[in-house]
């Protein structure tokens, strides 16, 4: 009997990477990839060693056993509606930020796993076709209510078998907030000043980084989210250093004239500030200076 397919929803950078890795692996059921205009039957992936490979994808008729949602955060709900899934279909959300995760966890009738991933991929600029696996990372998986640990472990094991190192965890909310802190500082500043991530390590923008980290630390303490081992500023600075040569995803979106993930990344922090009556002038200014 053929295993039930997995469907990757959103044929962008991360969706193509996940679909390619899963499709290339042995002993994993059929993998389908659905973009804005329907199912794709093949894709091209550049490996981290620079070599290219082409992969065939399935057009399965059976309903998916898992849907990996790989759109940008503002598109996730519409993509799910258009996919017309059976109620109760398990989801794995790959989005940055902390917006679609709590919403779908509350509203979706099936299990909702959330991922915090450090895999990095980008689409080749047109007219080239294909996705580049820029850096291998790690994917943490879990659900916000801690009710689907077994499913998270099974999905993590499958991803790992496919070459996407993954682990289930009991603190996915904390991991999502840690990632959000990085994106809330690096993405708006690099997009606004049109600079590579590494420029944030130098004056004058390093002072802006410190001020934003201080506001985030205050919010996270109020929300009882444990800080990363290096502290909020140490953690953000380490990511700036590790990704110094990167053009952040928000800068790429702005340069390409696309919508950004501003609301998914900054709104949850502004909502916490309102809940706890805390002043966050730097974060508010960042929000207003960033296109939606
Ligand atoms: N790329 C990366 O390295 C990482 C990305 N992330 C997060 O993962 C998520 C995806 O990022 P990324 O892959 O880079 O984004 P991309 O913009 O490359 O991909 C998103 C894809 O979703 C498609 N899409 C939009 N609406 C629909 C729809 N209704 N139905 C089907 N497909 C749709 C888009 O189509 P179209 O092209 O037509 O707009 C696009 O191809 C984001 O939240 C990002 O923050 C997290 C970690 C790393
Ligand atoms: C970590 C960082 C900031 C790397 O560029 C990223 O996640 C992004 O660009 O969205």
UniProtKB/TrEMBL annotation:
Domain Ketopantoate reductase C-terminal: 171-288
Pfam families named in the record: ApbA, ApbA_C
InterPro entries associated with the record: 6-PGluconate_DH-like_C_sf, 6PGD_dom2, ApbA, Ketopantoate_reductase, KPA_reductase, KPR_N, NAD(P)-bd_dom_sf
Family affiliation: Belongs to the ketopantoate reductase family.
Signal peptide stretch: none
Residue intervals of the Ketopantoate reductase N-terminal domain: 6-145
Annotated Gene3D superfamilies: N-(1-d-carboxylethyl)-l-norvaline Dehydrogenase, domain 2, NAD(P)-binding Rossmann-like Domain
Catalytic activity, as annotated: (R)-pantoate + NADP(+) = 2-dehydropantoate + NADPH + H(+)
Origin superkingdom: Bacteria
Listed GO MF terms: 2-dehydropantoate 2-reductase activity
SUPFAM superfamilies in the cross-refs: 6-phosphogluconate dehydrogenase C-terminal domain-like, NAD(P)-binding Rossmann-fold domains
EC number of the protein: 1.1.1.169
Pathway: Cofactor biosynthesis; (R)-pantothenate biosynthesis; (R)-pantoate from 3-methyl-2-oxobutanoate: step 2/2
Entry keywords, A to Z: NADP, Oxidoreductase, Pantothenate biosynthesis
Name of the featured protein: 2-dehydropantoate 2-reductase
Biological function: Catalyzes the NADPH-dependent reduction of ketopantoate into pantoic acid.
